[in-house]
Amino acid sequence: MFEPDYPKVKQSLGQAALRDPYPAHMLDPRGIIRAANLMAFWLWDAIGYEETIRPDVLLGSSSFNVLTENLRRIPVEQNIELYMKTAGIVKRLDARLDLGAPLYAPFIVAMNADANLAGIYEAAPLHPAREWEYCLNIAPPDSRSAGELLEFQVTIFRLEDEAGFLVTYIPTRATLLVVEEAYNRLAGMYGDEIYILPDNTDQGSVTSRQAADLELFFRSYHPKLRHDALWYLIAENKAQHLLLGESVVGKHFFELFFAPQLHEWLGPVQETSAPRAVKYFDTFTAGFLREDHELHADYLQVMQQLLQISGFREVLEIARRLPIRLNLPDRPEIPFYTCRVFLPWPFSQEIILHFRSLARYIDTGLLVQSDRRHYEIILVPENSETEVALILLHLSSTTPTPGEGESTAEEPFLWALAVMETVKEGLKMKEGENTQWEPEIAFVHVSEEVYARFEKCGEDTRDTIIDELRVNIEALDRKGRIDKGTLLTMLKSLTITNPYMDELTNFFVRELEIYKKSKGW
Questions:
Q1: Contact 426/442 with Cβ under 8 angstroms?
Q2: Taking 90 as the threshold, does the pLDDT of residue 145 lie above it?
Q3: Could you give the CA distance from residue 221 to residue 244 in angstroms, rounded to a whole number?
Q4: What is the rounded CA–CA span in Å between residue 35 and residue 372?
Q5: Is pLDDT at 274 greater than 90 in this prediction?
Q6: Secondary structure (H, E, C), 190-204
Q7: pLDDT per residue over 398-424, tens digit each?
Q8: To pair with 249 at 20 to 30 A between CA atoms, which of 140, 177, 282, 404?
Q9: Tens digits of per-residue pLDDT, 441-499?
């Protein structure tokens, strides 16, 4: 349906996004809605006055036709970017008759029937810049006219393995109250259901799986934290330490969450995730407000410290004012989603890692009261790009340096080939398979095999190694797992500070320049 460069997300995490309290739906490659959450039905005015929701009102429909049916709610002047980008996509698709042009005819007719929209459609480029994101300003459902508008930041993700697309609608701060109220009311009426086309998968199975299955996808190189009942961080794994470059044990969770740099990386997402995170804290610690509670004094001291953090007081007031509905599991041992997290890759600030935060109760083996539980926070990568970045982060310790023994000019390239073979091994495993796989351990046996293959060096050995290295890089790009330019940037950033690796770094730089030229950048 769309052109490359869309942000990617794993299919399992795409389904997880449908559990969010904000509108989200999944599309097939042609733009047909094949799954949607409750709030997507609300946003597109697909919930009638009946006691039950009719999934067929939205599911199976072209997303472009749904947009067409709601044009009266989407004023042109406030949505030029939306119309321009959507028109460019439709013009491309309409030219590909094999995809089924009638799917897009209603949108084209409607655009040309309005003088302002017709001009936009005519001027729309076939490849709009960053067409996967735009602002949607839309009148509330049931509105007769476009008066006071709701504002959403829309992002379109490409599902990995060419499975289609995920579209998310994140409300701005001004719209958040309306959306939270609607979600709280509708979830109480209908339950927090996900609606899926029957020929796709069984609705019940997806609804019941939610976070429980995602726990199986956690691997040892994924970041993990543990906090106590007052949300002080009491443990972390190696991946978390490597990601932040320091230990966070002893700090409070919100010292990290409200750090200025995190706000910069999260951007608009923090406006929705921050109140929800504070709401979880407020809910889990509500019992400590009782003066006779053993942790009452400690809780008051924590709150005094937190209120000194810039931005916390404001978000706390928002969290307590908004009717935020938390989807807590019926049983404490079931993991549950909290929010999305964006963090920069330590070796390059231009590489942003995408995670979905998963929380679960930790059984300490003691008779702990229900309001004093410890929780574990797992950052599950949303896409293969983040998986690769984490694997490379662990493998950074394996970079060779000239030792006392004799080394060859080929050694840095052999190391790079072993790294790529290790990355390939990590990515080829299916979700839930070999969850104990560790990059450093895998690198040992992979590097032994690679070095053994090139034990006898000849005149063309280096060229052969480079050819294999290119094949591995191209393969990940061709399969849609990670963009070639992004991977080359990661590899270059990994070696650039090591003088012994200068030739290898220069190779990555040249390959990156060639790639950029091929893209017209």
A1: yes
A2: no
A3: 14
A4: 38
A5: no
A6: HCCCEEECCCCCCHH
A7: 988 776 445 677 889 999 999 999 999
A8: 282
A9: 999 999 999 999 888 777 788 889 999 999 999 998 887 788 899 999 999 999 998 88
Residue 454 within any structural domain of the chain:
yes
Nearest to 52 by CA among 63, 36, 38, 66: 38
| Structural domain includes residue 227 | yes
Residues 342, 466 share a domain: no
For the sheet containing 233-236, what is the strand order? 233-236, 224-227, 374-381, 348-362, 336-345
Domain limits at 14? 8-210
The length of the chain is: 521
Contact 106, 94 (CB under 8 A): no
pTM, to two decimals:
0.83
363 with 469, same domain: the answer is no
Give the pLDDT confidence of 430-456 residue by residue, as tens digits. 766 667 789 999 999 999 999 998 887
- Give strand ranges (E) for 122-260: 133-138, 150-159, 164-171, 194-196, 224-227, 233-236
Distance CA 388, CA 397 (A): 15
Nearest to 446 by CA among 467, 464, 425: 425
Backbone φ and ψ of 440, nearest 5°: -65, -40
- Residue among 14, 6, 5 at smallest CA distance from 356: 14
Can you name the residues that pair with 361 across neighbouring β-strands? 375
Helix ranges, 404-501 (H): 411-428, 439-453, 461-478, 484-495
Torsion of CA 177, 280, 225, 390, to 10 degrees: -20
The enclosing H or E element of 427 equals helix 411-428
Examine the pLDDT at 243 and tell me if it is beyond 80.
yes
In 320-393 the beta strands, taken as DSSP E runs, fall at: 336-345, 348-362, 374-381
pLDDT the model gives residue 404: 42
Phi, psi torsion values for 270, nearest 5 degrees: -65, -25
